[in-house]
Amino acid sequence: MQLSSLIGAIRLIQMGDKRWIPQQLRGYSFFSKLDEWGFQSSEHQNMCITCEDFNGQVFAGDELRRTFPYLTVESKNTISPNVHPNCKCTLQREN
Ligand SMILES: [Zn+2]
After folding, report:
1. Beta partners for residue 78, in sequence order
2. What is the pLDDT of residue 55?
3. CA distance 51 to 20
4. How remote is the CA of residue 70 from the centroid of ligand 1, in Å?
5. What is the Å distance from ligand 1's center to 39 Cα?
6. DSSP letter assigned to residue 42
7. Are 38 and 57 in contact (CB under 8 A)?
8. 64: CA distance to ligand 1 center in Å?
9. The predicted structure's pLDDT at residue 3
10. pLDDT value of position 11
11. Dist. CA 25–CA 4, nearest whole Å
12. Nearest 5°: phi and psi at 25?
């Protein structure tokens, strides 16, 4: 991992929930214990083994940032876990 991306990740963690959630989505809960997110792998040819392992697993919201430190919130019901560069997998809200 490059140092600059490591520093970026640390900065994101220090800024708390607000930094993770786009302004227009801050009314929703993403990272509470009660939020459930199902991993859907992209199924494309060069999908990595890590993503294949995650496929179908359900994560509680409070596990997400530890499990997927590079995640980005895309919409109310979709998070990109960004497991690796160019990862096309998604986390879909289950509840
Ligand atoms: Zn992936």
Report:
1. 75, 92
2. 93
3. 22
4. 12
5. 10
6. -
7. yes
8. 15
9. 72
10. 61
11. 27
12. -110, 10
Which run of H or of E encompasses 37?
A: strand 36-40
Interatomic CA distance for residues 16 and 10, integer angstroms: 11
For residue 50, what pLDDT is reported?
86
Residues in the 5 Å CB sphere of ion ligand 1: 51, 83, 87, 89
pTM of the predicted structure, to 2 decimals: 0.77
Q: How many A from CA of 90 to the centre of ligand 1?
A: 8
CA dihedral 46, 50, 56, 57 (to 10 degrees): -160
Q: Kindly list the averaged pLDDT for each block of 10 residues, start to end, along the chain of length 95.
A: 70 64 92 96 76 94 95 96 91 95
The conformation of residue 58, written as its DSSP 8-state character, comes to E
